[in-house]
Amino acid sequence: xxxxxxxxxxxxxxxRQKKAINLIASENYVxxxxxxxxxxxxxxxxxxxxxxxxxxxxxxxxxxxxxxxIDRALKLFxxxxxxxxxxxxxxxxxxxxxxxxxxxxxxxxxxxxxxxxSVAGKIMGMSLDQGGHLTHGQKVxxxxxxxxxxxxxxxxxxxxxxxxxxxxxxxxxxxxxVVSGYTAYPRIIDWKKMREVSDASEGLMMVDMSHIAGLVAxxxxxxxFDYADVVxxxxxKTLRGPRAALIFVKKDARELYKKxxxxxxxxxxxGPHANQxxxxxxxxxxxxxxxxxxxxxxxxxxxxxxxxxxxxxxWRLISGGTDSHLILVxxxxxxxxxEPLVKDAAGKAEAGAGAITGKEASERLEKQGIIVNKNxxxxxKRPPADPSGIRLGTAxxxxxxxxxxxxxxxxxxxxxxxxx
Length: 420
Ligand SMILES: Cc1ncc(COP(=O)(O)O)c(C=O)c1O
Prior knowledge:
Elements: H1 4-19, E1 21-22, H2 32-38, E2 49-50, E3 53-54, H3 60-76, E4 84-87, H4 93-104, E5 122-126, H5 142-146, E6 148-152, H6 163-173, E7 177-180, H7 191-200, E8 204-208, H8 213-217, E9 230-234, E10 245-250, H9 256-268, H10 274-287, H11 290-312, E11 316-317, E12 326-330, H12 358-367, E13 370-371, E14 373-375, E15 389-393, H13 395-399, H14 404-419
Helix pairs in contact: 2-10, 3-10, 4-9, 6-7, 11-14
Pyridoxal-5'-phosphate binds next to helix 4.
């Protein structure tokens, strides 16, 4: 690279990534092949439209790449192309979710043919502070400005989803679409029960499986495809691909997929990023191998060990543990000093974990080379900029080959750093 300024910065970032222990739940390390596809000449090509229906010439090869990506996406999640459609053009997770709502949820304030003005449809989504994502209808996101969010949260005692409560909300509010799949929820989601929630409102069921897509592909987390109408996912978290997103849509008489394709292009985007689509195709092929199934299995095993080891040392985990790659730790615990839980052979208690805010915890860990993110915990009384917890994930470090014994050491080190 001739640009020495950028080259130096890329090298510095590479070094940082190599040195750090990365416990950011939404990150991963892609393969050389994915990087090669991303950095290829495909970035030079404009390809507005869809395969066979482009607005630019010279797209024979790009068509083949997009079709291959579509084929691999459907195969990976064991979907019949007669029953499911997939759009592989969304640039990332947030625009993918926006495209789904643009296609399927009525906008307010639009003059109708009969002279009346339309009322905005409702998106039922988990609140940000309970583990939902901004794009599930949060006010600061476009999805909360154009539509009305019907928020839902967790049971305050179990810190898990109370499906009966959700059904009641859906029955009362009649949302157009109910979104499940979250940003900071460590547990398995019961997709059948989420279907019942959507049915209670006679609405659509959308799953945003961004965080868990790699675990679903690897067969270690239940697949939402038996129940959902629409499934969105980013491709860069547990799925271990480039930054991009996919929208899967059930093919039936409603023909929702036609509306979604139109919302992606020309509704919200112009030319798709062919280099990114090729890189997604590479990642999807990698994710369909036995080695990836083993990887996904190890990700969850590692998360369970990390959770157990932290809990053993007195750290309170949201919902008491994890079924996935993700752990939410309550470092603050409402300011109360935790009782020491680790005992020595004589039954004497070792020092317990002390109260520390999520911000301070993440900063202290970073100084010692462990990268996490501060995160709100359900019913957090502290502000989002300095919340009560940290979020951890095992996908990135598992890619580097780390196993249970390594995560035992990581938990020990984290505990030492946080208790200082
Ligand atoms: C559940 C979920 N959906 C969507 C997104 C948004 O993805 P992106 O950052 O690619 O826009 C995220 C990102 O963290 C997420 O966790």
